[in-house]
Design brief:
This protein is α+β, with helices and mostly antiparallel strands. 29% of the residues lie in helices and 21% in strands.
Amino acid sequence: MADPSILGGPAAWHGRDLLQKRAWIRPLSPAALGELDDAVTALRNRPAAFQDLKRGDFAFTHLASELAGAADELENGRGVVKLTGVPVERYDDADLRRLFWGIGLNLGTPVYQNAHGEVMGLICDEGAEVGAKRGQMVDKDGGTFLSSRARAQSTQLLRWHTDRTDVVGLLCAGEAAEGGASRVASAVAIHDEMVRRRPDLAAVLYDDIVRSRLGEEAGGVEATYALPVFGVHQGRFSSHYSRTYVEAAQNLPGVPAMRDEQWAALDLLAELGEELCFEMALKKGDIQLLNNHVVYHARGAFRDDPATGRIRRLYRLWLAMPNSRELPPGYGVLFGSREAGATRGGILQADDGRRCPAQAE
């Protein structure tokens, strides 16, 4: 795009806006929580695994209405919602997975998060061998380069990025002893500020940048794809970004070297993220929902303390949303479909070519 323009709109918020206008924080009503508890209690007597449950297994009325409001805010408003009040201490791991799965099914369609059929990740520190389990490569200096997923399953900080799905949801079931703050930034606001300060660099991010599929598809260690960071289609903005996968691609043979202006554009994006972001501590019982097309997220480094039980534990869902926007040309290489409301995103399964379990649709 030779001449990118300022977009504005409700998704173009600054961190101070989330601090001052807190309608994006939505406590679940007692009636909704009652429906949730009734569903979990009833499902304890069924042998089915959480991923075998269907939307009809959850009799939600009040909760369904509240989730519909959240879905509208995610697509047409700020793109960020925090639901609060889930009494996670009342439930064990199996209960929490059923509970969060039911919420996900009433918001959208859960899609696969890796090539091995994972539909609900447990985001926590997996120790020193996380790279061997979650994806890594050797960089040009002979060092170990971790995939984004491996970094997420460690205690280290996570840089600004989006996930490969319409909406990512996190249910907090455990807090770290120290650190681990969740950080969110409006991709639209970052875009607009970049247009104001350096329109030449904003234009660069409308052109393709090569990324690696490291840690995503089975056998995709050296597979790459090209996609712009910014796109506008039918008047709607979309962004997909992870610097980790850009850097990983630069370690692969045959990938064109990034130009200086491309690195400068990504540097400015990160700087503006720091300037315009909002930082929050996710508490037990919070559910963070983010529209990946308009919101970047990051995380601070953290420290667990097993002796006191202060361990960071987040259940994660990737959701294809029925009210999603049509994506810009080129996004099919990553999401499978650009069509509005399609079951898209996630990681394609090699054995059956699906993006989600059949019962989730």
